[in-house]
Write a structure and sequence with these properties.
This protein is mainly beta. Helix content is 10%, strand content 43%.
Length: 100
């Protein structure tokens, strides 16, 4: 079992928009998604996503994909985009993405 870490630096203007969307019901529609992706040395990827909602605030999640693009794990919905996201694959490896 291994722990993989990455830091994702997102532009301030994009983070400001996401923060507003997480606190507003009219910034993003249910078909709107903002995605930031990191790739680890073993080929796994994590998408950090801000997802719009119908008549509600946007929400966030992180999704782990294997090197073939298959979804492996995802987090519970959240109301934050920055900070640490933790995911694990079926082999016991941990993936930590710090969004700044």
């Amino acid at each position: 079992m291994a722990t993989f870490r990455k830091t994702l630096k997102v532009k301030a203007a994009r983070l400001a928009f996401i923060d507003k969307a997480l606190n507003s019901t009219d910034m993003m529609g249910e078909d709107d998604t903002i995605t930031e992706t990191v790739t680890f040395d073993n080929g796994y990827q994590v998408d950090i996503k801000c997802c719009g909602a119908q008549d509600d605030e946007a929400w966030t999640e992180a999704v782990l994909f294997d090197p073939k693009g298959n979804q492996v794990a995802y987090t519970d919905p959240s109301d934050r985009f920055t900070g640490k996201w933790y995911l694990a694959d079926d082999r016991g490896n941990t993936y930590i993405v710090t969004v700044q």
